[in-house]
# Entry
Amino acid sequence: MGNFRYKIAQFMTGRHGMDQLSRDLMAYGMIIVVADIFIPGNVATYIGYFLVFFAIYRIFSRNNTRMTAQLYWYKTYVDNPLRSFLNRDRKHYRYFKCPSCKQVQKAPRGRGRIRVTCHKCGNVFEKRV
Ligand SMILES: [Zn+2]
# Structure
């Protein structure tokens, strides 16, 4: 048994291994494959299997530079924006965008009509919160 573990460790040397993107790809892939039961046709199954096989490819890849760049892209453009969107405190704050620069702003709820000065571009506009 010790020999088997040693061989696995040898096989994984220099490979990228499991990271957050591979884990999320596997999770999304499996969710899509299971959800395909309710979706007519089998396009969703192919997409789900593609995501799972792409995750496996990433785990065993020796191209660490490229896998790290993919992980960075995923965290910057997918994971962090999604997390900040899902973690918004909508019960106590209202979220809205600046009309000129689209910067997301928040203000406490229940204050009525307020004048907002954008933190980013200094644009002044009115908003009901
Ligand atoms: Zn602005």
In short: The pocket of zinc ion is lined by residues 98, 100-101, 103, 118, 120-121, 123 (CB under 6 Å). The mean pLDDT is 93. Residues 93-128 form one domain. The first strand starts at residue 93 and ends at 97.
